[in-house]
Amino acid sequence: xxxxxxxxxxxxxxxxxxxxxxxxxxxxxxxxxxxxxxxxxxxxxxxxxxxxxxxxxxxxxxxxxxxxxxxxxxxxxxxxxxxxxxxxxxxxxxxxxxxxxxxxxxxxxxxxxxxxxxxxxxxxxxxxxxxxxxxxxxxxxxxxxxxxxxxxxxxxxxx
Length: 159
Fold this sequence. Notes:
Blueprint: H1 3-22, H2 26-30, H3 43-63, H4 69-91, H5 95-119, H6 121-147
């Protein structure tokens, strides 16, 4: 594995992670109704840090392989939807609009998992925890939307 490529993929994950810092959960999220099975707050940074390290590893392993076009495309798509979801859910507080983004993210992670497995077993395995986590996150996103039917998104006004 090329260590420079690993750090480049890791930089992309830092970009996605930055949205979490820019749009923290805050009091609004704490006040929402959530299902009984929501993970404790400490699990989220541990899970995301692990996932970002794993997918940077996977991307670096596959980037140097012949026939990696689909794997790299899915890698790019998943990180784009990953980056987009946080500002929509936590920034705009738009529970419903975050659902199709989450659906696209789930499909992109599935595609990345499959295409990485086709090229490199370790890279494919590195995506499995992400697929599991995004499945839980999608169920949580849907549950929070259903449990908070009267929650209105933030209104954006022109300056």
